[in-house]
Amino acid sequence: MVGSLKDLREIRDKYLPDLEARRRDDSKYPHLQVMVCAGTGCTSSESIPLKKDLERRLAEANLDHRVKVVKTGCFGFCKIGPIVVVHPGAVLYCNVSKNDIPELVEEHFVRGRVVERLIYREPGSGVKKRSIRDIHFFKSQMRVALRHCGLINPEDIREYIAAGGYFTLEDCLSRRKPEQIIEDIKKSGLRGRGGAGFPVGLKWEAARNAGGSEKYVVCNADEGDPGAFMDRSILEGDPHSVLEAMTIAGYAVGAGEGFIYVRAEYPVAVDRLEKAIRQAREYGLLGRDILGSGFEFDVDIRLGAGAFVCGEETALLRSAMGLRGEPRPRPPFPAQCGLWGKPTLINNVETFANIPEILSRGPGWYSSIGTEKSKGTKVFSLAGKIVNTGLIEVPMGTTLRRVIFDIGGGVPDGKKFKAVQTGGPSGGCIPEKHLDTPIDYESLRAIGSIMGSGGLIVMDEDDCMVDIAKFYLEFSQDESCGKCTPCRVGTKRMLEILERITAGRGEMQDLYELEELSREVMDASLCGLGQTAPNPVLSTIRYFRDEYEAHIIDKKCPAGVCRALLEYTVDEEKCVSCGLCARACVADAITGDKKGQPYFIDRQKCLKCGACQAKCPKGAIYAH
Amino acid sequence: MRKITGFDKDLDEKYSRLDEVISRYQSGRGQLIRILQEAQEIFGYLPEEVQAYIAGRTRIPVSEVNGVVTFYSLFSTRPRGRYGINVCLGTACYVQGAREIIDDFRRELALKDGDTSDDGLFTVKSTRCLGACGLAPVITVNGEVHGRISRKDVPRILRQYRKMDKAGEAAIGRQPERSEGDKRQIPAGP
After folding, report:
1. Inter-chain contact B134–A41, Cβ cutoff 8 Å?
2. Do A81 and B134 touch (CB under 8 A)?
3. CATH 3.40.30.10 spans which residues of chain A?
4. The domain at A31-139 falls in which architecture?
5. In chain B, which residue's Cα lies nearest the Cα of A425?
6. Which of A81, A148, A590, A605 could pair with A582 in a Cys bridge, judged by C-beta atoms 3.0 to 4.6 Å apart?
7. Architecture of the domain made up of A377-460
């Protein structure tokens, strides 16, 4: 039970040496520490059994008293997972499998020698980098929201306290007035990280000024944009930072209860959150009379059930009350009328994760980072056709080119970059010529996309931009809740036009109609989903009009993606007449014999399913 | 709130588990979604009878319960296969060929209109982004994640689970397994 600053200090002092030994190489520290990544990416590649195996073997070698194995949050470098880091030295081992454990134990922990073959090599130069501190991917970042991910054990509240956690809460409760806290948040310039970028301080102020004694704080963890996993990693790697920030927010706006709305697709995050809430209650950091201040606050979890629209705040609030997640017009804003009609402050995970750090280091420090209108840092998830898939945090104002080519390592397999998609189904595709744009809320909007929650998906020459537009529209159309007509019917009509174009039945008039419909859907839809759904279509027409024209006029898909426009052909040079393709064909469109003559595809019969191409062991069947 | 009892111990037990869930959450506000999620864990899906039963016990109109069930994609009103295959169709997976993978699963299992194979073993669905984009393309089978898969892995994965099923190791992953008997015992929804 933690009842005062003294108790917090006691815990910190006891566990600080562990953390310090991880932060810098401390030769006096008696143990070796092995950090095993337990984020969703690494656990999917079996990092939990790996950890158990490591512990078992260490015990067998009588090393368990000397080597501490620690489960930690996402390092962000999912590409090279499962990741194991050994302190001192911060030696990073990549793609560690169970088979590597005996060697790791024997070499590193018994003999004290680094296992060279598991060491990271910089792509391109091939230079070996032993320490995580020397690796370009990590060196180029500035971690604020992700400050504890990979450093602490997210399932141990004592490590969070040792890292300075809950001290800001203590300071707020005993020494700061709610108005001062809100003033500091305003001065820091922090804007909502969920996508729209509304100034956080103003939201807090509105919730504070709303009348009534019953208020709520809600954390939006319904991270629905495909390809975005920032919030998930924070919840998995540092759940207490969100709980601490929500409690501070509760104190600042005058709320006594908080809810975290998490998508059910994130089981690991939900599990960590549940553990964190339980521990915080045990330690008296949630519940009644927190840290002897008399302030009462508690947090509960609400699970989503698979509806993208619930990321929209009014829809989320309805869903958190157990109803259909349909949005409603604003005003009234949630700050006036939210959960059960009471004033409700709603911010997203990453926004909350920044709060304790801002309040502890001061608004001046935070506002010195970033651009004029977008302060601080932003977490981005890098996915798609990019060498270093993973999670990064950089100051606002960093260029897209630096993020994708320098930190992200560029496009793999020597392919050519085509576009980067930001903002999920509400955002747009940005072409090469705009890569030098510094990332902030305004600049991305100016080039037809949005910041969104931070998903960056890179596309290369093999991706068809018409198909990508169709993919996003399919998503929005499917997730439209159906409440308002422009979104429900408008996105459907737009999708039909795109389906026509990709099936080779498009006309030039269709482009005009797509643009016309887009404007109407944007103007007339009730909530953010409909208002932004046309963005992927408009941005691809704007930057990749030639691809649309190729589909419409030449009836060709230049990237070779849209199946109806493809023709499958057997490369006679490569064909070894094995006959696997003919057997795979459900339409009996492939003929030939096994006597060495190349096989032949009858285009009249071909259904363009691609089964033959998948089966061919020699890669002799190509689509064009 | 029709409840079929007396002749089927298995079903009785499921309803008594549901009763526990309802009484656990009834005091809290707005817990209908949580109750439905746990009910689906118990029964495997949410047939009309279960929806009506929950409506009766929680005093929420059955129309509202049904409205919630049909709004969210994670609720199913039809029985599902013993192994739920979810193919992630998030953007990162999509650009790495997830569409072809789901098509291959459907073709291998000869699925036409429905999502469940004739032998009741597999249900194939697309899912929203799982956030494991670093492993794209990703699928989950009963919650177990398979990353960086290619079209060539599809038959292998199906073989693996068929073999496991024969060996009687059905108890993996997070989703509850459903015995063959359930299909007969719970009247299916419309």
Report:
1. yes
2. yes
3. 31-139
4. 3-Layer(aba) Sandwich (3.40)
5. B91
6. A590
7. Roll (3.10)
B128–A227 C-beta distance less than 8 A? no
| Residue of chain A nearest B89, judged by CA positions | A226
CB contact under 8 A, B33 and A319: yes
pLDDT higher than 50, residue A157:
yes
Class of A157-367 in CATH: alpha beta
CB A217 within 8 A of CB A394: no
| Stretch among A417-426, A460-469, B7-16, B77-86 having the lowest mean pLDDT | B7-16
Residues of B in contact with A379 (CB under 8 A): none
Q: Which chain B residue lies closest to A473 (C-alpha atoms)?
A: B91
The amino acid present at A235, given as its one-letter code, is L
Enumerate the CATH 3.30.70.20 domain ranges in chain A, comma separated.
567-623
Amino acid at B118: D
CB contact under 8 A, B72 and A305: yes
Interface probe with B: pick from A457, A473, A609, most Cβ of B within 10 Å: A457
- C-alpha distances out from residue A315 to A58, A220, A334, A383, Å: 50, 11, 11, 28
Q: Which CATH number is associated with domain A567-623?
A: 3.30.70.20
Angle between helices A167-175 and A239-253 (to 10 degrees): 10
Nearest to B174 among A267, A322, A385 (CB): A267
Model ipTM over 0.95: no
Residue range(s) in chain A whose domain bears CATH number 3.10.20.600: 377-460
Separation CA A270–CA A259 (nearest Å): 13
A56-70, A302-316, A413-427, B24-38 — which is least confidently predicted? B24-38
Instruction: Match 């298995």 to its residue by tokens.
Output: B10
Q: Which amino acid appears at position A168 of this protein? A: T
The boundaries of every CATH 3.40.50.11540 domain in chain A are: 157-367
- pLDDT of the residue at A406: 96
CATH of domain A465-554: 1.20.1440.230
Could you tell me how far CA B7 lies from the centroid of its own chain? 26
pTM of the model: 0.91
* CB within 8 Å of A342: residues ≥ 6 apart: A212, A214, A215, A216
